[in-house]
Amino acid sequence: MADRKANRDDDYYVINETRMSLNPSPLGLLMPGIDQTTNREAARLCARDYLENHAFYNDKQFHNHLNHQLLAVYSLGGSVKRLQEIFDINNSYQRPFPARVSDVTITSKNYTEYLSKEEYYANFLEFYCKELHMSDGNWNAVVAKYFFDPQIFPLAMSGLLHPFIQLGYGLEFKSEAIIAMALAQASIHKKQFSCAFDTETFDEICSQADKNDAAGLSFFDIFGRMHGDPIAAKITYNEEPYAKENHDHAEDLAIKYAKLWTVEHTEDSVKTKCMEIMTVIALVYGSSNRYGYRKVLEFGIMHNLTSSYFLPIYMDALTLDNKVRLLHAYAVTFLYMFASKGCPPLNIPPELTSTNTHGAEISESLGDNPWTYVIDRAIASNDMHVAKVVRALWRLSLLSAFPSQDEYADRYAARPINANCLYLAFITIGNISKSVRRNPDTGKMELKDEEGDQGWAHGMFAFDEFWANKPTGP
């Protein structure tokens, strides 16, 4: 694995070289078009990404998303041709795989010495490949040991959850190579949160003891309380929503309200709370608009939505104690994201809570199964996140369609508000569009803004300043 040369599109040896395997999704989200050929092509392209590219595509730790979009489209039924197009678009701007630091061998005894040091990515990847290989297929034990290591966990939950997402793909597709990539990325990541994941603070968040009278609030009710909290009033508008002057206030709010959300140490509670947090994230994703303005979909909130897809996958892989800890940690990241936007009031359109998706206007215009139309559009989208959004919403729609009769009994006065996932998927494909063109000077495929293109909104949508230059309309 020392020679990290570029590989041709007909080089299948890379699959064996990386031990890249992609088992079918355990969630049953298998669409027509998935077969051994597309599986092999997806594995080959993921292997090339493994061999050729860095975990970050620039020196600001912007994350390599290549296999994220590739695997999402593969699982939705994308063709061999489409998979290659996605690889070519995303591969064109990646940083090359870094050289291994020759005089350093990372081991289970010294790995903490090299954490958050980007130059050791190749060394960490080598280390985790060995650890996973020696586990004799017990990859979950390796994940539990390193992902939940008190020094790695704060890094893994940073950066808009990209290490969490990467590991989620590895667990979903039961891929040793992708799990190794995820653990290596987490290990070189910068720490995002100042204190939320410090041992003492995080133990307080997870503890069921000494909770005050407000503990046990539904996740949805928490957002109303955050909006009127005095700490929220300290958050001021900034064109950079994660600016340092707001970061600490947002983190303080996240910690304060994460302590009010209770996950009991039972499998039933884990199942209920997992479903609850996924639903509320979808609701917030669809409620960020201000009345009278053209619909916007916020970039940071979107990452919580796409990453929530993997929560049930993690729940299948972890011990009960780690399931509870991960749900609390995930709640912290989402509460922080919401606070960083200024704790906006939620404007929930009636379509978002409708339970009759097939009676909706969008359904009537798209045929007997509107999901088929939505999924086809997601596969064709050149935005690297649209397919992941649609996939997360489709998964949530399946979970929501078959709830047990007493799933929420004794937990809330009423069942949490419904989220119409088809509506959310439809507005996503209708509002996020990016054109791709080949740069005549470099020959590379690049995203270009064309007239009429619309992308993700970035910013603090609780404030008037955010909306000052936004177009009005339905």
Structural class: mainly alpha
| Helicity range | 40-55%
What fraction strand? under 5%
| Radius of gyration from CA coordinates | 22 Å
Give unreliable regions as ranges.
Answer: 404-415
Strand numbers in spatial order across the main sheet: 1-2
Name its key features:
2% strand; 474 residues; 49% helix; mainly alpha
Outline the secondary-structure elements:
Layout: H1 13-18, H2 36-52, H3 66-75, H4 80-91, H5 121-134, H6 139-147, H7 153-156, H8 162-172, H9 176-188, H10 199-206, H11 219-227, H12 244-258, H13 267-285, H14 299-308, H15 311-317, H16 320-340, H17 361-366, H18 370-380, H19 386-401, H20 421-431, E1 435-438, E2 445-448, H21 464-467
Antiparallel strand pairs: 1-2
Helix pairs in contact: 2-3, 2-4, 3-4, 5-9, 6-9, 8-9, 12-16, 13-14, 13-16, 13-19, 14-19, 18-19, 18-20, 19-20
